[in-house]
Design brief:
Layout (H helix, E strand, L loop, with lengths): L3 H17 L8 H6 L12 H4 L4 H5 L7 H4 L7 E5 L5 H10 L4 E6 L2 H14 L4 E5 L12 E7 L8 H11 E14 L5 H4 L2 H5 L6 E2 H11 L2 E11 L1 H9 L5 H8 L3 E9 L12
Parallel strand pairs: 1-2, 1-4, 2-3, 4-5, 5-6
Antiparallel strand pairs: 5-8, 7-8
Helix pairs in contact: 1-7, 8-11, 12-13
The structure holds S-adenosylmethionine.
S-adenosylmethionine (SAM) binds next to helix 1, helix 6 and strand 2.
């Protein structure tokens, strides 16, 4: 059984090094085929947002949404980005919460962490801290964060229940979970799910949307909502799947409209002490 976490770490380490050596971060099948960029990770931010960021932070963007645009961050808040990569969403969050707030990035891959810290130095922002660690074991105290953001990372974890329990633990009562992720609609073919590279590329590890809601509820969250931001068609997935050696035309009906990028919202209830105690 391959170690998913090690494969993910290696892939994103290589992606960080590609940016550091002047290339693009793109990884996965689309990059292998045509250089850059797949329909999931491209054109997520507008120029007004990226204009003031270090170029390497923008080049390292590997998310599937724009959680900072949807999360309604307020001045003075503490934000935590799960799987912060090159730091784009942390740097954007830091601006939104202002000098009285704080933006943490949590990242397990050393090369990404080094890139994010270099980007922070270049951006000259002080209300940012990049932490080394895993999203299954968040190195922050209970009830210490106002908003958890994440951009296409929860789907990479082999233990999503644990990630969601940890997110719930570190959020303050009333704290918000505001995450971009790839989710599927209905069942997906086993051969798609089983491809490790697809997993790394954000798809095969994605949860079915109702499963995602159930897991959030089981972790203790309320006010759960999943809003599609991009629904992918067969053509969007062609390069991605062809790179995996999959005959796209043969499986088109099972792929078309079955996976999407979505914005996932949930709230940690105010009068709740843990999963199950509110019911
Ligand atoms: C899809 S990229 C997204 C990076 C960033 N959020 C962005 O939007 O550009 C996934 C990032 O999450 C990190 N990552 C994946 N699994 C992780 C885990 N279990 N714990 C911590 N970081 C993880 C990877 O190293 C990688 O940098």
């Amino acid at each position: 059984m391959p170690d998913i976490k090690e494969i993910v770490r290696e892939k994103y380490g290589q992606a960080a090094l590609r940016v550091t050596t002047g290339g693009s971060s793109c990884c996965g099948a689309a990059a292998a085929l045509d250089g850059c960029c797949d329909p999931i990770t491209s054109n997520l931010y507008d120029a007004g947002q990226t204009g003031s960021l270090p170029e390497a932070a923008v080049l390292a963007s590997l998310g599937c949404g724009n959680p900072t645009a949807l999360a309604e961050l307020k001045p003075g808040e503490t934000v935590l980005d799960l799987g912060s990569g090159g730091g784009i969403d942390v740097l954007l969050s830091a601006k939104r919460v202002g000098p009285g707030g704080k933006a943490y990035g949590l990242e397990m891959t050393d090369e990404m962490l080094a890139l994010a810290r270099a980007n922070q130095r270049q951006a000259g922002v002080e209300n940012v801290e990049f932490l080394k660690g895993e999203i299954e074991n968040i190195p922050l105290p209970d009830n210490s964060v106002d908003v958890i953001i994440s951009n296409c990372v929860v789907n990479l974890s082999a233990d999503k229940d644990r990630v969601l329990r940890e997110a719930f633990r570190v959020l303050k009562p009333g704290g918000r979970f505001a995450v971009s992720d790839v989710v599927t609609r209905g069942e997906m073919l086993p051969e798609i799910r089983s491809s490790i590279l697809m997993w790394v590329g954000c798809v095969a590890g994605a949860l079915e949307q109702n499963q995602y809601k159930d897991k959030l509820a089981a972790a203790g969250f309320a006010q759960i909502d999943i809003e599609p931001t991009r629904i992918y068609r067969t053509e969007d997935a062609r390069a991605f799947l062809t790179g995996e050696g999959i005959d796209v035309d043969a499986i088109a009906p099972q792929v078309d409209g079955k996976f999407m990028s979505a914005f996932i919202r949930a709230v940690k209830p105010i009068a709740c002490c843990g999963p199950g105690c509110c019911s």
